[in-house]
Amino acid sequence: MNCLTNRLLLKDIELFNFIYTKARCKFSNCFMSYITHLGGAVFTITLPVLLTIFGDQKLDQVAFEMLLVLISSNLFVHIIKRIVNRSRPYRVLEDIDLVKIPFEEYSFPSGHTTASFSLAITLSFFFPSFSFLFLSLSFLVGLSRIYLGIHYPSDVISGILISIVFSLAIHFNSIS
């Protein structure tokens, strides 16, 4: 088991290094620094609140479900972060230049990725014709977390999986 774990960790670092180094330029630094905020608390909380304020009854239902998924998945993420205690890549690996101020909290799983995919999946249930847009933006949020040196790929993948589980559970529980 230890050998398998070590192999997975090495592959995680290899993939991190590939993503972190291949597309580095001023435009990417700027773009990724902005797109990453679509998974931050300000955006992910503001969006459902605005849907409630300016929307109709259907949008109220969407916003309520979004908030349920966000709260439950984020709670789970914070519990897992404290159990796993994985250091962020910039604290462990050499030659990681941070574009923004570093995060002090643990790395695994990615909260920004979980939040953005939670919103994207929930919105996709209600507005399936926009699913590609919602999920693409969330994918970019996850990619930005790796690109910015804040998360490993496995942090992002686990955030996606967590958001899938919570989004499905809450959506199909609320419609039954």
UniProtKB/TrEMBL annotation:
GO cellular component annotations of the record: plasma membrane
InterPro entries, alphabetized: PAP2/HPO, PAP2/HPO_sf
Protein name (database record): Undecaprenyl-diphosphatase
GO MF, one annotated term: hydrolase activity
Domain Phosphatidic acid phosphatase type 2/haloperoxidase: 62-171
Location(s), subcellular: Cell membrane
SMART domains: acidPPc
TM spans (from-to): 31-55, 61-80, 125-150, 156-175
Keywords from the named record: Cell membrane, Hydrolase, Membrane, Transmembrane, Transmembrane helix
Coiled coil: none
Organism encoding this protein: Orenia marismortui
Protein origin, superkingdom: Bacteria
Keyword Hydrolase: yes
Membrane topology: Multi-pass membrane protein
